[in-house]
Amino acid sequence: MSSFETLNDLNEKEVNFIFQDWQKGLQIKKYISEQCRVISFAQNFQKKDMFCESGCNHPRLWAQYADKNKGACIVINEEKFIENNKSFLNEILWKIENVKYKPYIYNENPRDSTNPKEFLENNYDRIFFEKHFDWEQEDERRLFCIGGPKFLSIDNCIEFICLGNKFESNYYNQLADFLISSIDKDFTKLRPHDFTFQINADGRCLCADNAFRIVDLVKKKGEFARKYMTYLNENGYSI
Questions:
Q1: Does residue 48 have a pLDDT over 60?
Q2: DSSP letter string over the chain?
Q3: What residue numbers bound the domain in which 179 lies?
């Protein structure tokens, strides 16, 4: 989870209220920096004919957050993600909501309270779930928490991983090595059909099957890959 010190929107940690006691605003801002965390997800891009169930079809996000199409988009099942992290989330204040986009961010009448934590609990929606509308094409859905952990688990929450269309060949080789070595690791094993790759058509970003390419890369590893291929066959997976 990110602290508000590391976000790319300069206004994220600002408190857009006017206080009679100016020191209170500084205390709240300090509390946000020290105690609040956030994860930002891009939702499905559903404007006009751009609908995509995977949420991978934002050309701008591939450029900004995936190293100019060299990276990857991990598609998370939100329901499984929340269920998977209940042991952490049940102990803290957390919210997951859509971000609202506005021409300016200013709130005239804050719901006041005696300390920074109570103030943020009362006003979280107007502080953490509103952004300037220049960001609206990100279609952001945000998980916000106070006093949360640095990491949450995505084990068994991944629907699939979409690789960018500039995902380099040496990265594919590393991916094949990782899949093979994962057989001896204590986490969920990924399969070739857990990956797609990004294609571009008519100005749109789409996802296409990538399993055959990954299997070919794994098979080229020869004897080193035998255990992984056996694992796939034993689990009813064939390609």
A1: no
A2: -EETTS-S-TTTT------SSHHHHHHHHHHHHHHEEEEEEE----STT---TTS---HHHHHHHTTTTTSEEEEE-HHHHHHHTHHHHTTSEEEEEEPEEES----SS----SSHHHHHHHHHHHHHSEEEGGGGGG-EEEEEEES--S----TTTEEEEEEPTT--HHHHHHHHHHHHHGGGSSSPPP-GGGEEEEEEETTEEEEEE-HHHHHHHHHTTGGGGHHHHHHHHHTT---
A3: 168-234
Statement to judge: residues 88 and 10 lie in one domain: yes
The answer to whether residues 194 and 116 belong to one domain is: no
| 106 confidence band (pLDDT: 50, 70, 90) | low
Residues 105 and 208 in one domain: no
In a domain, 119, yes or no: yes
113, 187: one domain: no
HEC assignment per residue over 131-151 = EEHHHHHHCEEEEEEECCCCC
Total number of domains constituting the chain: 2
Residue 88 has pLDDT above 80, yes or no: yes
